[in-house]
Specification:
There is one protein chain. Helix content is 72%, strand content 0%. The mean pLDDT is 96. The protein has one domain. By secondary structure, it is mostly helical. The two termini are 23 Å apart.
Length: 201
């Protein structure tokens, strides 16, 4: 769900980007020949999983999940991911040193140039993402609301995500404070993961 965070943390490495972007759709061992992944794409899948594990276990994320649980229940984690992408997008220049528009243009171009490397469901998602410019829209509450409603339409059970924007508005400062605590720790952790993989950014 936190597409922007995953994209940024992949750096300017196309194979990491493709593997990371596909990560939720690669089941089991990414080295299994059935996936037909390159070494860089395998590293990207492992990077995706490292980001998810760190995020799921972080106390700041747990605190926001608790805030959202009365409305979203089991889907509170999905809402946290989307909310945190909003704070990353809204503060992208300050947090990363580059304009959001420049990074998003690079990311979209990379995805388009390597569409043939994406599993079919990921390629379809990428088409919608780029056409509707999801990542730029994350700066704005309207874009976050559209994303929440889109995910809500795809959940197997009632999720509360269709109205979760109300919790973002209600707890905006508090959630932003949790994000500000979480983000630099995630960046440091993932830099270490990438260094251990011996993949240049």
């Amino acid at each position: 769900m936190n597409l922007l965070a995953h994209a940024y943390l992949s750096g300017r490495h196309p194979e990491l980007i493709i593997g990371n972007f596909s990560g939720d759709f690669i089941k089991g061992d990414p080295e299994n020949p059935r996936h037909q992944l390159t070494p860089g794409e395998i590293a990207g899948v492992r990077l995706h999983r490292a980001i998810d594990t760190f995020t799921d276990e972080h106390p700041a994320v747990a605190a926001v999940r608790d805030l959202l649980h009365p409305r979203c229940h089991k889907y509170a984690g999905a809402a946290v991911d989307i909310f945190f992408d909003h704070f990353l997008a809204a503060n992208f220049l300050t947090l990363t040193g580059e304009p959001l528009s420049g990074f998003v243009a690079y990311f979209y171009q990379t995805i388009q140039m390597h569409t043939n490397r994406l599993p079919a469901p990921v390629a379809r998602m990428a088409e919608y993402m780029i056409r509707q410019d999801w990542l730029m829209s994350y700066q704005f509450l309207e874009g976050i609301d559209r994303s929440l409603k889109g995910v809500s339409r795809r959940t197997a059970y009632p999720s509360g995500l269709d109205t979760a924007i109300e919790d973002l508005e209600r707890y905006y400062t508090e959630i932003g404070t949790y994000f500000a605590d979480f983000w630099p720790q995630l960046v440091r952790h993932i830099r270490g993961v990438i260094q251990a993989m011996n993949v240049s950014r």
